[in-house]
Amino acid sequence: MTLGLTINALAVTAASGRMLLDVPKLHLAPGSCLGVRGPSGAGKSTFLFSLAGLIENASGAVTWGETNLLQMPAGARAAFRRRSVGMVFQDFLLFEELSASANAALSGAYSDPAHQKAIESKAEEVLTRLGISHGARTVDSFSGGERQRVAIARALASDPAVILADEPTASLDRKTADALIDDLLALVRDTGKTLVAVSHDPAVYTRMDRVIEIVDGRIATDEAAR
Amino acid sequence: MNPLGPLYRAIEWMPIAAQDAVVLLVLLLPALVVGGLVIFGYRPFSLVRAMLWRFRWTNLLFIGLIAVSVGIGVGLIAQERGLRQGTARAADPFDLIVAAPGSEITMLFAAVYLQPSDVPLLSGDTYQSIATAENVSLAAPIAFGDSYNAYPIVGSTPQFVTHMSPALVEGAMFRGHADAVIGSGVDLTIGATFTPAHGVGDAVEHDAHAQFKYTVVGRMQPTGSPWDRSIVVPVEAVWEVHGLANGHAPERADQLGPPFDPDYFPGTPAVLVSAEQLYANYALRAQFQTAETMAFFPGAVLASLHGLMGDVRQVMSVMAVITQVLVTTGVLVGLVILMRLFARRLALLRALGAPSRFVFSVVWSYAATLIFIGAVAGVGVGFLAAAIISRVVTAQTDILVNATLSWPEFHLVAGFISLTVLLALVPAFIALSRPVITDLRS
After folding, report:
1. CB-based contact A32:A211 (threshold 8 Å)
2. N or C: which end of chain B has fewer CB within 10 A?
């Protein structure tokens, strides 16, 4: 399944009243890859978290397919993320004491038993494809690149339609970052998933289908990647 | 009032062990129900294991605190029961005591637990009336006042020694005034001789009876009472050592034991009486409950004391639970603080779309695991504490106390687990109220 994104009048305001994000309109085709760049503090992560339905005080509409996240209660938004969204974070956010396999299949712990096997199997498949062959080892001994691969496997294990990545290469050296983004894009494009990746790294956003630049909470530029 | 009374009455048709097992299950039921409801449908244990391992030393400290508070609580309560059983066992050979009117408890402590105090003496005539009363099979006078190496020397009769120890472990019954039969715990050998000191404890006068020597001729069986550390000698000898008549007319001065001659009877603080039939003890008690004598069953006095201790036990049980709950509350407050360290991981779960109830179940299971392991370890600590305290109490009182944990303590631990895993819901609720984005960025 693929999902497209439609944003209408998305606004996020801080408790102080300061505007954090103001996106009047944005449409993203199903299966496309969007890079989000911009200076620090510009609102890139707030934009990404809004797409995941994690921002409580957002207004407007963030619609994935037919589902407007901002009209749903928190529990339903969590269910949507569980079903349709995989997330990758800058500093991996793994359970260091668990194995690569257990981390990758984390969502199996709260899925219904019918899906648990599928999640475990998919996690192993992605780990193998990403070159993580020692799945039983705890990840505290892994390198940064290996950890981020495990995090990507975790994001893909439940076969979501959307992948949201927040600075996925920021903690990696150049060579590892390039290899990782190659792998991520290959996995996403092979399965027709929609990818939104926030990054300072030109090697990431220039390889997307489209790049937006956010400055002071607003989309300053919106263009196809070169 | 025992809050479990109605439950016990409802299942009194069951065998005792089954009743206790059912009560244990009922007490654990709140924990099991809460656990079932919280965890149902999820598999939080790999994450719980990860959390336990990540802060293993802190977790061990929490478990240790719970274990020590539970262990000391149940150990003390078991000790109280062990002490009751030990004191009852020590009093078992003493059917009826007749003494001069006064405090039954003072006399109980003097005659049964060998804690002598100054009490009025019964005269020879009174002793005679007791000894010759219908159905009396044993009327043993006792005489205190001397000691050897902190072992109290008690004067009595060969019949009394046989009553306490139907067979001797070694040696023979005393046949002469200078013979002594020792308790099982007395550090003397057969054939050893010793000079009695006047008095007991710190006030002994070692040379007061320097001219007199006893010879050990026999050793009694263990009784689990202070009598195991006593030296029993002919009552005649105690009287003689103190310059008194020895209970017999001069022409029968070498006699040991009854009958005694009232005219030569110096007096005794108490007579230990045993009737030929158990029921006859009641008649004897009534007969000697007079203006000149006081008759009481040591078991009945002890039961009154135990009744008082029963109230103390209930108070101790409540205090133990309160202490344990306070310690656990402290641990749970610690967990709430520790949850800040886990906050990012919990926020991750919520960002990935984990249901709130799953995150709740992870936190609750983590806290409940610490509580459960702590409580089970506490049972182990309780066994150890009971054994150690038993040794100390036995050494201090000479009353053999074999305290060990039993169903009441297991019930207490089960109640503790149920109560505290309910309290563990609090950190779980608090964890859910944390802001996801803030924690993710922390």
Report:
1. no
2. N
**B285: domain range?**
94-297
In whole angstroms, what is the distance from residue A37 CA to residue A219 CA? Answer: 10
Q: Out of A87, A95, A108, whose CB is closest to B345? A: A95
Mean pLDDT per block of 10 residues along chain B (442 residues) reads 77 88 94 94 92 91 91 87 84 86 86 81 90 88 88 92 91 90 93 88 76 92 89 92 86 86 90 85 88 88 79 75 80 80 91 94 94 95 91 82 88 91 90 88 80
Residues of B in contact with A107 (CB under 8 A): 352-354
- Under 8 Å between Cβ of B235 and B182: no
Residue in chain B lying closest to A112 (CA):
B41
Contact B40, B286 (CB under 8 A): no
Alpha carbons B375 and B322: distance in angstroms, whole number: 14
In this structure, the answer to whether residues B325 and B428 fall within a common structural domain is: yes
Does B116 share its domain with B170? yes
The chain A residues in contact with chain B (CB within 8 A) are 45, 49, 52, 54-55, 74-75, 78-83, 85, 87, 89, 93, 95-98, 102, 106-110, 112, 116, 154
- What is the complex's ipTM, to 2 decimals? 0.93
Q: Residue B147 is inside which H or E element, if any? A: strand B143-148
Say how many C-beta atoms besides its own lie within 10 A of residue A163's C-beta.
23
Q: Are residues B158 and B78 in the same domain?
A: no
Q: What is the CATH number of domain A5-224?
A: 3.40.50.300
**How many domains, chain B?**
2
Same domain, B10 and B146: no
